[in-house]
Amino acid sequence: MTHRLPRAVHSSNGHTVFDEHGREVPAERSDVEDVLQVVQRAAADLLARSPRPPSTLNVRVGDVAVEMGWTAPTAAAPAAPVAPVAPVAPIVGSVTPAAPEPAGPTLDAATVGTFYSSPSPGAPPFVNEGDEVSPGQQVAIIEAMKLMLPVEAERGGRITEVLVGDGEGVEFGQPLFRLAVADTDLAA
Amino acid sequence: MTHRLPRAVHSSNGHTVFDEHGREVPAERSDVEDVLQVVQRAAADLLARSPRPPSTLNVRVGDVAVEMGWTAPTAAAPAAPVAPVAPVAPIVGSVTPAAPEPAGPTLDAATVGTFYSSPSPGAPPFVNEGDEVSPGQQVAIIEAMKLMLPVEAERGGRITEVLVGDGEGVEFGQPLFRLAVADTDLAA
Amino acid sequence: MFDKILIANRGEIAVRVLRACRELGVRTVAVYSTDDADSAVVRMADESVRIGPAPARQSYLNAAAVIEAARITGADAIHPGYGFLSEDSDFAEVCEAEGITFIGPPPEVMAQLGDKTSARAAMTAAGLPLLPGSVEPLADAESAQRLADDIGYPVIIKAAAGGGGRGMSIVDAGADFARTYQQTKATALQLFGDGRVYVERYLPSARHVEIQVLCDTHGNAVHLGERDCSVQRRHQKLVEETPAPGLPRELTDRMGAAAVRGAQASGYVGAGTFEFLVDTENNFYFMEVNCRIQVEHPVTEMVTGVDLIAEQLRVAAGERLALRQEDVRTDGVAIECRVNVEDPKRNFAPAPGRLEEFVPPGGPFVRVDTHGFTGYKVPASYDSLLAKVITWAPDRVQAIARMRRALAEFRVAGPGVHTTCEFLDQVLADPEFADGKHDTSLVAKLLES
Amino acid sequence: MFDKILIANRGEIAVRVLRACRELGVRTVAVYSTDDADSAVVRMADESVRIGPAPARQSYLNAAAVIEAARITGADAIHPGYGFLSEDSDFAEVCEAEGITFIGPPPEVMAQLGDKTSARAAMTAAGLPLLPGSVEPLADAESAQRLADDIGYPVIIKAAAGGGGRGMSIVDAGADFARTYQQTKATALQLFGDGRVYVERYLPSARHVEIQVLCDTHGNAVHLGERDCSVQRRHQKLVEETPAPGLPRELTDRMGAAAVRGAQASGYVGAGTFEFLVDTENNFYFMEVNCRIQVEHPVTEMVTGVDLIAEQLRVAAGERLALRQEDVRTDGVAIECRVNVEDPKRNFAPAPGRLEEFVPPGGPFVRVDTHGFTGYKVPASYDSLLAKVITWAPDRVQAIARMRRALAEFRVAGPGVHTTCEFLDQVLADPEFADGKHDTSLVAKLLES
Asked: Which of C154, C208, C443, D92 yields a CA-CA distance of 20 to 30 A from A142?
C-alpha cells in the first residue's frame, strides 16, 4: 500500500520546496489519507452545494484543517465580482511551492554573480542535462568580484534541467540546476 | 489508535502548504466522519435555507469546524462585514439589529433624540418591565427638534427590559426595549 | 475655542475636520449612518452618534437628526464639511436658534450667495466683473431666447439654485435654445425644487480659477491665492493646483483683491471660495461663491502653510484673523488628485467595495487625505471620493513628477474595486497639461482619443 | 543623471531613495536578503536582486554581492542609504574601481572623516572649535589618565572608529578612569576591529545639534540649517527637530558657516552632517561628520523644501548645486519621531512581527516615511525603525500638537508587535520638552520617573 502525502523539502535557499506528487514518508499515512479524504469530501460537497463560488472555505477536524481561499481580482482586473474558483483537487494533494519554479530539488547559487556553465569560453560545459553528478562535483562557475568560484553539487543526482544560460547574472539562492534524486536520498 | 498527521494543510490562493511536524490527532476517524457529516449537513442546510447567500458561514462542533465566506457580489449590497459570523440561530430568525446586544428582538429608536419613558415628568411610565404590549401601542416618547414623537411598538410581546433611562439621549436604531415574543410570532 | 465640535459629514473631510479639532484640543463627535458604522471618523472620534439609515436624506441631510445629536452630546459647534448640509442656510439658521455655532458664514449671507442670481447681483454691486448674461432669473422662454441671441452663442443656462456642475446646459445655436431652456428648468425643479434659471455667455475654452478667502467676524478678510481647477470631467473636478499655471501674478492678485472686496461687501465670515472663469485673453469673470471649505483646499494649505480648517474654527469661535494679507506668502507648487473608486473603463461607474489592500503613498512632500484603510468597505451609498493625494514641489515639473510617483505607489485592491489612479496619471502625462496650456475641455479630449 | 541606481539598503530609507529616483526618472534596483523578499522596496523597484541570507554580514554588508548585483543589472550608481555600507570607504573605493558611482563623498574623504581622530585633526585645522581632549588617539593608559585629569571630570572615552553611540563611555571620577579606559578599548576592538580611543570633556547637559551640508563636485557648498537631536535614549535619537528650540539664529548661522568651512576644507561631496555639542553657555564644539544621509533628514526637507536625496543624486551625477546659500530659506518648524517596533515596557526590547493592522497617520502637514504596510512581517533580523513621522507647522507649539495628533492616529497591531508611539507621546507631553529646555538627559529622566 502506498501513501501519498505532502512532504516538505527544504532547499538550501531557505525557501520551502515541495514535492508535487507526494513522496514516500515513513509516517502512518493511511490514517492521514483517510482523514484528509473525509475532510476533502466534506469541502467538495460544500462547494458543490454552494449557491455561488465562495471566496474562502475552511474545514478543520482537530488538528487537520483544510482552508481554501481564492485570490480576489486585482484592481486592474475586469469587474468580476466573484473570483474564479480553483479546482478542488489541490486541497489534498496540493504541495505546490510558493516559488514559480516547478517542484524538485535544485542546486542553487551561493552568491550573486555571473554564471558560467563551462570552464572557459568554447569549452564543453561541466555538466549536461541527463548527466549524473555526485556530491562535491563541480557543475559550474560563478564569477563574483573577478573571482571564479566553483559551483559544486551539494548532493548527487541526475541533472534534469539547466536553469540558467551561460553568462547570465544570478542572484543569491537562484536555482541553477534541477536534479532528479533517488527516493532513498530524498528521504534521508 | 493514533494518527500521524500534518498539523495543517493550508491551501490559500494556491500558495502555502504546510507539513510542519506531523502531530497526533486525538479523534477517531469514524468519529471524525460522523461529526463532520453532521456539521456538513448543518452547513449545507443553512445554506439552502438562507434567504440570500451569506457572506460567511462558520459551523463548529467542538474541534470540528466548517467556515465559508463569500465576497460581496457588488458594492451595492448592504454592508456585510466579512467578520467572524454570529451564531447560527439569527440566520433563521434574524430580528436583531447589528448591535452588540445579546440576542432577542428589540424596539429601536427611529430617530436621534431624547428618550422619555412617561407622558410627562412625574407621570407613570407608558410601560414597565413585564408588561404585554400590542402592535401600535405607544411605549415611549422621543423628543427631537422640540417635537414629542410617540414611540410605538412595531410588534406585540412582553417587555423584558427597558434599555434606556428616562431623559437619556438615544441614537438612530438604538434598542430601547427588549421584548419576549411568542415563537409563532418569531417564525412568521 | 470650542469645547466640543460635531462633525456633520463623512468620508475624508470628516477625518480632516477631526484632525484640526484634535490639534486644537477640541473634542469631537462623529455622526454616521448605518452604512458608516465602521468608518475612520467613527473610529477616531471621541464620541459618535448614529443618526439614520444609509440614505443621505435620512442621515447626513437630516438636519433634525444632526441637531439632536449635537444636543444629546453637548456639542457647542457643528462643522458641516462640504456637500450635505454645508450650504443649507436653513440648517445654519436652526443651529443659530439652538445656540450651536454653525462653522460657516451667517445664514443670511449663505442664502444670498447660495442663490446664483442674488449672488450675481451682489457681486455686480461690489464691482466684480461678470460674464454677459442675466442678473435676474429669466421670466419666460421668449425673453430668455432674446437675451441669448443678444449675448451670442454658445450660451450656458444655469439653475439659480444649482451648483457642483449640476443643473446646467450649454446651447450652441439659437435653434436649440427653447428646448434646452425647458429641459434645464425641468431638471432644476426636480433637483433643487426651484425652476429658476439664468443665462450667460459660455466660454468653451475657459480656465476655471478660484480664490480662497478667509474672513473673521471683525471685518478682516484675506485671500490665500488661487486654485486652478480646469481638469474636470462633466463639471466634476479631478485635478486642482496652485498657482494657476501660466497666469500672470498680477492677474491673480487682482482676482484675489476682487474676491476680498466681494467677501467684505457681502459680510462673509469663515473660509469661502470665489470661482472665476478666465478667458484666453486673461479676462476674469465672477461665477459663484462656495460658502464652505472646498474639497481642494489642501493645495492652498501646502503653498501657504495655513491650516484652513483650523482657521475656520478660530474665526467661528470669534477670534481675529492672525494673518494679514502681507503675511500670506505662497511658496512652490501644489497639486491635488482626487482618487475616486470609479472604473474609467466603464464610463467612471462607481466601483466601491471592500479594500483588501490599501497602501497610500507617502514620503517627501506627499500628503494624503483619506478615510480609507485596509479592510474598510467603501459603501455604495455615497460619492466615490476615496482619497486626495496632494504633492508639493518648488516647481510644477517636479510637483507633477512627484504626483505621478505617488499615484504609481498607491495600492488599492479589492473585489470589484477600481480607482481613477491610472486615468489621473494619463492626465498628468498629457503634454498640454504638462505645459499648463490645458482648459476645461482637456478630459473630454483625452477620453475621446 | 544616472540611468539606473542600485539601492544598497533596506527598510524606510530604501523606499525613500527609490521615491527620489522615480521622481527623477531613474530606474531602480533593489537588493534584498532572504528575509526581505516581501519588502516594500522589492515590490516597488523596477528590478530586484537577492544578495544573500538574512544576516546583514552576508547580505547588506556583503560588498561583493552588492557590487555583483550592480554589475548584473547594469546599474551605474549605488545609493548606500545610511548604516550598512554607507560609510565604508573601502566599498566606495571598490565602486569607483568598478566604474560605478558611489553616491557619497570620495573614499579618501570618507576615510579621513570616518576616523574620529583624523576628523578632529582636520576640523581643528579648518578652525572649528573642539572640546578639550586628545586630537590623536591615546598612546597608553597612563598618558590617557593624565590627560583626563587635566581636562577635568566627567570625561568621555570614545572609540576612534566608533559611531552611532557605540563604543563610548563616560568617566565621572579619576579613580574609575583606568578600568573604563581598558574596557572601552576592548569594546572598540571587538566592535570595530580597532582599539584606538581618545578622550574629551563630557558635557552632561549639552544639546546635540547638527548641521546639514550639501556640496557639489565643483567646490560649491551650502548648509541647510540645523537639527536638534537632543531627545536620545542611550545615544539613539528618538525625536529630532528644526530649528533647534531656543538657540539664537546668530549661533546656528555661525555653526552653519563653520560646517561649510569644514566641508570645503575636507573636499566633501554630497550630503553630509556636521554634529556639534552646544553647552549651556551656547558654545559649540565639533563632534563628528556623518558622511551619509541621516535618518532625520526629512525635518530639514520640510522647512527648506529641498529634496535632499534628489540633491545627492544630482551632485553625484556631476551637476552643479542649483542652490546658493542665499536661496536657502527655512520656514516654520518640523519635528520627526522615530516609531520603532520596540516595547517600552520591556526596556525597549525589539517587538517585531506581522503587522495585521497598519494605518499610518495622514492629513495636513504630516509626512510618513515607512516601509510598513498591512500584512508586512517586520523581520527580527534588522533594526527596529518602522516609520518616521514628520510634522510641520508655522510654530513649535502647533508642530508638537500636530505630532501628538499624528501619533495618536497611527494604528499598528499584530501578534507580539509593540511600538514606541505612546512613549514618544510622553516625551512630547513633557513640560521640559514643550519649553524646548530639554537636553540629552531628558529620556533617562522620563524613564526613571
From this structure: D92
